[in-house]
Amino acid sequence: MADHAHKLEILRGLIKFKSNTQKIWGVLILLSIVTTVEVVLGIYKPDAFMAHFLGMKILNWVFIILTLVKAYYITWDFMHMRDETKGLRRVVVWTAVFLICYLIFILLQEGGYVFDVYHQEYIKNF
Amino acid sequence: MDNTVVSTGTEGKTWGGGNQPLKASYGKMMMWFFIVSDALTFSGFLAAYGFSRFKFLDSWPIADEVFTHIPFYHEPAPMIYVAFMTFVLIMSSVTMVLAVDAGHEMKKAKVTFYMFLTIIGGLIFVGSQAWEWATFIKGDYGAIQTKGGSILQFGEYVEKDGEQVFKRVALKDFAIAAEHTDRTQHESKNGIWFLSEGTLPSYTVEEVLHGLKENSDILVRTQIINEDGHKTVLSRSESIKQIQDNGKMVVEGANLHVNEYGTPLFADFFFFITGFHGFHVFSGVVINIIIFFNVILGTYEKRKNYEMVEKVGLYWHFVDLVWVFVFTFFYLV
Question: Using CB atoms and an 8 Å cut-off, which of residues 43-102 of chain A contact chain B?
Fold first, then answer.
């Protein structure tokens, strides 16, 4: 960001800011709204979100998706990833995304397997 | 040989050197790569937490029942305090990015002010986390650990808004302390071989059992989560039988060995992951303070760029980023 140029659009150009400072406050408002939604859902846990989808409650999927949304805006706007070159962005983001997905898959898969062993074999519960 | 410099014919071309394809300074790029590796470390921890949780899917503690405390407020209120902590950290991220922005405009006074606010935000967060730890370590209701290592908690059904709800009861509210059986904690100075023991719980299993028999409303709740997503409550006779046959140890609060809220693994991961994150926040605050003084001393003014603020800013935002995930996986999901 040697030339100090900032891209001032978020949400694919839906919201355009006049200055970088204004964009920072805009992103804060967005992050606050997302966090508030998470907290409200976390306190009230509406029944509509309690059904299971792909092995997990819909509510938990909502939480994870909202977390990724927050992570995106922190990285893109607070850490200025939006203003970096495509190369740097891909080096950082894809390396992390690929390895983390692998890690999550392997550990959760095995955790589920151990759970099944505990339940189908004879292991004392009390 | 009249010329030792070999001309390769690639000057000015792609492989002639001197290219900066990522258009970022060395320091900033290294900070990004450090962040990637640190992100993988945290992912490893959180995925390990996920592993343990999937392993004990039907008996994992319910976070809403564990983290219910707010300073100076005595009703259980899950989420509120941790939402406050999240907001503090996001807010300090905002002041940090404002400092970076002011740095680009070479406004020293503004950078100083925003760096100061960032440091204050970080300190409030670390302080809140310390309080959260202290509350968790202290515990609130107490429980019995069985021979098999499970946790049995106590409570009674009370009427609330026309519905029967299970309300937790603390050991001190029903356990009957026996006379003349008070044991004092054994300290190394009193005995041979300088042996010592950990803090004794306030009650013994027998005293809790006695209290349970005398109070006919009290029931035992196990770790097992039923179809409705609640912990299983045992019948009166089964309650007494479980404590009598399997009760081994009174547990109050949580540490690395026992946890009154459920499996000790929950406490271990909580201490380890939030501790590792808290250590990052702490080191972030220390680095921020160093940079803050450099700003005041005019180091970056002389250098004619505030990129150092930007680099420490990247680290600070990363700490916020990690917290967003810790918040989700420890408190929400």
Answer: 43, 50, 60, 63-64, 66-67, 70-71, 74-75, 77-80, 84-85, 87-88, 91-92, 95-96, 99-100
CB atoms within 10 A of CB B286: 12
Q: Closest residue of B to A60, CA-based?
A: B333
pLDDT digits (tens, 9 = 90+) for B42-63: 999 999 999 999 999 989 999 9
Question: Which whole-number Å values give the CA distances from B201 to B1, B137, B171, B219, B321, in the listed order?
Answer: 88, 13, 11, 21, 39
User: Are B332 and A62 within 8 A, CB to CB?
Assistant: no
| Contact with chain B for residue A4, Cβ under 8 A | yes
Q: Are residues A24 and A80 both part of a single domain? A: yes
Q: Look at residue B77 and give its three-state secondary structure.
A: coil
CA B274 – CA B70 distance, rounded (Å): 18
Can you list the domains of chain B with their CATH numbers?
26-139+265-332 (1.20.120.80), 143-252 (no CATH)
CB B24 within 8 Å of CB A83: no
Which chain A residue lies closest to B96 (C-alpha atoms)? A78
Pair (A2, A59) in one structural domain: yes
Mean pLDDT calculated for residue range B193-209: 82
ipTM of the shown complex: 0.90
What's CA B292's distance to the chain center, in Å? 27
Please report which residue ranges of B215-274 form alpha helices under DSSP H. Answer: 236-246, 264-269
> In degrees rounded to 5, what are phi and psi of residue B164?
-85, 115
The two tokens of residue B89 are 């950290």
